[in-house]
């Protein structure tokens, strides 16, 4: 008596094809997932285009300690950003300061809502600064992390 094994080979072939398709999906999903997560962070950066934070007034108040009286204003509308902050960098002809977080270091965590004006004394750590660079950032609603914008504004003293 002979056994009929034709049905068994069809099942094995179908099983191999299903496994190959699943392996292909797994190999393709890795790069696609990476591409999608990178494009999401790029989309978040579009919030920076409408985020308008800048220095409106600045003056040196103490030459010994390099204290500057800085007024910063947020005047954007429609940016979709609830809370924003500003990082400052002071420049003179030969050097620049480290980045100073105006919102955390100076105002004790006071974030800007729009429209709002803050005035505070800042230790610029640079003698006779000629320029201040303002780099806005916002708090990501999903993660709660700071997202620093790639755009900046300058104010000449």
Give structural notes.
With 157 residues, the chain is of the alpha+beta class. It has two domains: 6-46; 51-156, Immunoglobulin-like (Sandwich). It contains two helices and eight strands. Strands 3, 4, 6, 7 and 8 form a five-stranded antiparallel β-sheet that branches. A hairpin with a 4-residue loop joins β1 and β2 (67-74). The longest helix has 40 residues, at 6-45.
Oligomer: single chain
Number of helices: 2
Question: How would a textbook summarize the main sheet?
Answer: 5 strands, antiparallel
At the fold tier of CATH, the topology name of the largest domain is Immunoglobulin-like
How many domains make up the 3D coordinates?
Answer: 2
Number of strands: 8
Short summary of the structure?
This protein has helices spanning 6-45, 102-106, and strands at residues 53-62, 67-74, 84-91, 100-101, 116-123, 131-139, 146-148, 153-156. It is of the alpha+beta class and 157 residues long.
Key features of this structure:
157 residues, Immunoglobulin-like, alpha+beta, 2 domains, three-stranded antiparallel β-sheet
Topology:
Elements: H1 6-45, E1 53-62, E2 67-74, E3 84-91, E4 100-101, H2 102-106, E5 116-123, E6 131-139, E7 146-148, E8 153-156
Antiparallel strand pairs: 1-2, 2-5, 3-4, 3-6, 6-7, 6-8
């Amino acid at each position: 008596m002979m056994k009929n094994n034709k049905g068994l080979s069809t099942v094995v072939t179908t099983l191999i094809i299903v496994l190959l398709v699943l392996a292909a999906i797994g190999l393709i999903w890795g790069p696609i997932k990476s591409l999608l997560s990178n494009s999401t962070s790029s989309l978040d950066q579009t919030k920076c285009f409408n985020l308008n934070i800048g220095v409106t007034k600045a003056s040196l108040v103490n030459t010994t300690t390099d204290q500057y009286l800085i007024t910063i204003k947020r005047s954007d509308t429609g940016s979709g950003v609830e809370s924003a902050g500003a990082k400052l960098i002071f420049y003179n002809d030969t050097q620049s300061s480290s980045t100073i977080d105006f919102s955390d270091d100076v105002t004790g965590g006071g974030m800007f809502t729009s429209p709002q004006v803050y005035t505070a004394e800042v230790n610029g750590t640079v003698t006779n600064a000629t320029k201040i660079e303002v780099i806005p950032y916002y708090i990501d609603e999903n993660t709660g992390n700071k997202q620093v914008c790639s755009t900046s504004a300058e104010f000449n003293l």
